[in-house]
């Protein structure tokens, strides 16, 4: 794990071995989260960096700091306070923040990500203390390039995570608060895949908001006007993309939580030319297909046996449909049109048929209206008619998977695969406990946000069994896809790279070994999953001639070592004082960089 040890790949630019250059001293250093070590600054650095007198005398280890931080954290009494406490720790000391997070990931994952991050986003303008990330203004197109340029030199940024915040998780339009989904997902890229935290950039495209409560709130911090749509919106997105490409030509662009009318359109527009990825469309599709594959393995079925109903045909639902359709077509050796017959999309007005008003991405999945004429096309009726073995929820409609629907599904198949994915937790289409009780333990369940295990009399002769529930969230896959794309400096993110990522995750499913185990790997193996996904993505990029990084090893073991060496880890590295002249002027309070020298 330690990156201090030299390896054969220590020379690589992203290798995190050895000392780091630091041009700040004194209080400014203590206030720079990336360099700050707090009480762990060793005596020699305390002297060299003008810290004596600014810290208590005892020098503690990172492990001792984690212990203290965890004690403080444990005194918090509600999840939003826990989330706020974590955010403030991140502002103070990044190494300690990430170390704490990695050491207690099981407890903290749901605090820094869904569901609690959803509450933080909704309350952004109320709990705001200081900004993090880049805020771009649709009313100021001329400033976009300038505002983006503040974040570094061309080679400094590897990963840009951008939202327009119109469809945050399942909580809709959150305007400027959407910046926090970018911050949270970037935290996951570091925790799960070792993407360097200082080489990432969260961006919110502030286009206004149609959220009435934000519009009425005089403390709301974003543009307090209705969302701008149409050509001006497209121009804004394009201005951002072009500026990001010019300023940070090596950066991979991750789109998150755009509205349903824009998510796919924007992805399709930029995908042929730049390395970009939409997590809700592609990441969700990959995670769900991996979960389905492992569910089919447990139920001894194949993709060719699949009959899938997706409830909620928005960005995520159609993204899943696309990914599964492609996989069926490949497995059965048929065209995509034929494969789409196994997939049924239901939206607000029922099953999508040739008479429904549909978007171009939904169109390939519509069913012949004639054959459904006179029939009810609600979820229950479609389940009764189709007898699906897979049911997916991406509708944001809580409790939509009723007992009647689930029993109807279970009566037709041995092991129904049921994936209520709508986040945050309160929007899930069903909860695991109900699904298992209604199906007498037969359902294979994975959920969009984390759930505790469920116990019931489902073992042999009614023995109590504990079923662990996988979190089926794009977080299982997007960090590894990002890592693979960044390290290989892939020119594009292609379908083949995504298929490779799915294979990487599916191979690591605990359910392959034990059918009561979760369908997807859990937080305990996130970094290893990301190495595997990244390896597969890099190999696919190389096979397609899209990897621009030179000298990437080809053998699996070498490639894994090459990847691991470039994954950032939360460790205190020795600091090397650079710009001594600046530092000494800073010490005298002559430079702005020093910040306040007095408390
Ligand atoms: N677990 C995961 O990894 C992911 C989960 N999600 C969750 O999925 C949900 C949907 O997200 P997106 O697709 O991005 O949103 P979206 O807004 O693009 O899609 C939601 C769809 O559900 C439909 N819908 C609304 N009410 C309905 C009803 N009564 N019956 C049937 N359909 C209905 C909407 O018309 C829309 O097409 C959210 O809760 C989100 O958090 C999204 C991405 C990843
Ligand atoms: C997980 C995710 O991306 C979402 O719920 O939107
Ligand atoms: Mg999302």
UniProtKB/TrEMBL annotation:
Its cofactor is Mn(2+); Mg(2+). The active site is at residues 113, 185. This is NAD-dependent malic enzyme. The keyword Chloroplast does not apply. GO terms for biological process: malate metabolic process. It comes from the Eukaryota. A divalent metal cation binds at residues 256-257, 280. (S)-malate binds at residues 423, 473. Belongs to the malic enzymes family. Divalent metal cations. Prefers magnesium or manganese. Keywords: Metal-binding, NAD. The keyword Metal-binding applies. PANTHER family: MALIC ENZYME-RELATED, NAD-DEPENDENT MALIC ENZYME, MITOCHONDRIAL. GO terms for molecular function: malate dehydrogenase (decarboxylating) (NAD+) activity; metal ion binding; NAD binding. Residues 90-271 form the Malic enzyme N-terminal domain. Residues 281-542 form the Malic enzyme NAD-binding domain. One of its GO terms (cellular component) is mitochondrion.
């Amino acid at each position: 794990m330690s990156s201090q040890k030299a390896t054969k790949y220590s020379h690589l630019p992203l290798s995190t071995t050895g000392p780091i250059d630091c041009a700040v001293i004194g209080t400014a250093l203590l206030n720079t989260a990336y360099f700050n070590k707090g009480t762990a600054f060793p005596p020699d650095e305390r002297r060299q960096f003008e810290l004596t007198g600014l810290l208590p005398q005892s020098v503690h280890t990172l492990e001792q700091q984690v212990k203290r931080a965890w004690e403080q954290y444990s005194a918090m009494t509600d999840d939003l306070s826990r989330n706020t406490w974590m955010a403030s720790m991140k502002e103070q000391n990044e190494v300690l923040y990430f170390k704490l997070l990695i050491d207690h990931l099981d407890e903290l994952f749901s605090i820094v990500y869904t569901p609690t991050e959803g509450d933080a986003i909704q309350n952004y303008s109320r709990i705001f203390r200081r900004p993090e990330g880049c805020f771009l203004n649709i009313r100021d197109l001329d400033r976009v390039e300038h505002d983006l340029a503040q974040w570094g030199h061309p080679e400094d940024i590897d990963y840009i995570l951008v939202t327009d915040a119109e469809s945050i998780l399942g909580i809709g339009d959150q305007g400027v608060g959407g910046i926090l989904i970018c911050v949270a997902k970037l935290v996951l890229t570091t925790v799960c895949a070792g993407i360097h935290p200082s080489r990432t950039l969260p961006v919110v495209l502030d286009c206004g908001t149609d959220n009435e409560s934000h519009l009425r709130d005089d403390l709301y911090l974003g543009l307090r006007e209705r969302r701008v749509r149409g050509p001006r919106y497209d121009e804004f997105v394009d201005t951002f993309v072009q500026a990001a490409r010019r300023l940070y030509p090596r950066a991979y662009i991750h789109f998150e939580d755009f509205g349903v009318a824009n998510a796919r359109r924007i992805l399709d527009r930029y995908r042929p030319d730049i390395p970009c990825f939409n997590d809700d469309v592609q990441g969700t599709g990959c995670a769900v297909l991996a979960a389905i594959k492992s569910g089919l393995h447990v139920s001894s079925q194949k993709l060719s046996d699949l009959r899938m109903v997706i409830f909620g045909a928005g960005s995520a639902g159609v993204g899943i449909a696309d990914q599964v359709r492609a996989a069926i077509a490949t497995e059965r050796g048929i065209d995509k049109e034929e494969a789409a017959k196994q997939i049924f999309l239901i939206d607000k007005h029922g099953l999508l048929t040739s008479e429904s008003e549909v978007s171009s991405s939904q169109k390939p999945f519509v069913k012949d209206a004639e054959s459904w004429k006179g029939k009810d096309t609600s979820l229950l009726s479609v389940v009764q008619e189709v007898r699906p073995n897979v049911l997916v929820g991406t509708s944001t409609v809580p409790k939509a998977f009723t007992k009647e629907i689930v029993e109807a599904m279970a009566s037709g198949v041995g092991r129904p695969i049921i994936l209520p994915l709508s986040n945050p937790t309160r929007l899930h289409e069903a909860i695991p406990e109900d699904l298992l009780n209604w199906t007498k333990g037969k359902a294979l369940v994975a959920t969009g946000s984390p759930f505790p295990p469920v116990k019931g009399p489902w073992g042999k002769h009614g023995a109590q069994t504990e079923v662990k529930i996988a979190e089926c969230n794009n977080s299982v896959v997007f960090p590894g896809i990002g890592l693979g794309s960044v390290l290989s400096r892939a020119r594009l993110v292609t379908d083949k790279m995504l298929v490779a990522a799915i294979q990487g995750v599916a191979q690591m499913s605990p359910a392959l070994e034990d059918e009561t185990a979760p369908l997807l790997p859990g937080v305990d193996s996130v970094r290893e999953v990301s190495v595997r996904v990244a390896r597969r993505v890099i190999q696919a990029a190389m096979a397609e001639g899209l990897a621009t990084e030179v000298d990437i090893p080809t053998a699996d073991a070498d490639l894994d070592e090459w990847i691991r060496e470039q994954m950032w880890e939360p460790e205190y590295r020795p600091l090397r004082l650079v710009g001594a002249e600046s530092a000494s002027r800073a010490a005298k309070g002559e430079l702005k960089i020093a910040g306040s020298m007095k408390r």
